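Researcher: I'm preparing a figure for a lab meeting and need a structural model of a single chain. I don't have an experimental structure, so a prediction will have to do for now. The sequence is pasted below. Please return the structure as tokens so I can convert it later.
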Amino acid sequence: MNNEELQQELNLQFPSEIAGIKRPTEPVESKHDFFLKMPQLISKDPVLYNKMNLLFSILLSNDNALKQNIDTILGKLDNDYAQLDSPEFSGIPTVPTPEEQDNSNKITNTEWVQAWVKAFISKLSTNLEVETQEDGHFSCSALGITGLMAQNGYICLGKLFGNLILQWGNTLNLTINASVQQLIFPIKINAVIGAVATIQRGDIPDIVICPYLTSFSQNSMGVTIDYETGKSFTPGTDITNIVWFVLCV
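Model: Understood. Here is the structure written out token by token.
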């Protein structure tokens, strides 16, 4: 018996009026939205097996519909909702935005991250004031950076960058010969990580000259300005400039 046939049987077995007593039009009150409503009984309703069977049929049918609804809901929970344990999200899930200074295990979102980054940059830029002096020295206390902007200068990067120091210079008027000459560091160092030097000027026509770094100390590094042998050149009769860079600590 389908729903329509069951409804017709209800109307037949439970007429709207019996012996002058009218049946309430409202069905039996229920908190559930059943597809078939249970009619209210009145005092003149005879207790017949067919009526009782019909009522039981409605109950069973509604119970089956309720089960189907529950199964449908559970299916949606499995397919459309994440598990509480190790959930996997898709689409564009959202969460409440924590307070800026929140230091708990709450989930953050992009709004909170952008606000935090903007606040961090703002505070950082406020503290990144560079103090300069007339002699070329400068410092940024927030980062622990100091330096000297000059022909022979340096930048100390501080603890934030492993105390690395970059030094440079343009040492003038070095004699072209095979002797070791010193390139003086602007500041004292502990150890050299890497160094490079090149000729800035002073090439002699038809003579190849090249600087070779020979030794390092806390205050300087040695350089030999070699020249091409077999040419008509007297060592020590010309000079050159050396441009150099040193990475050290």
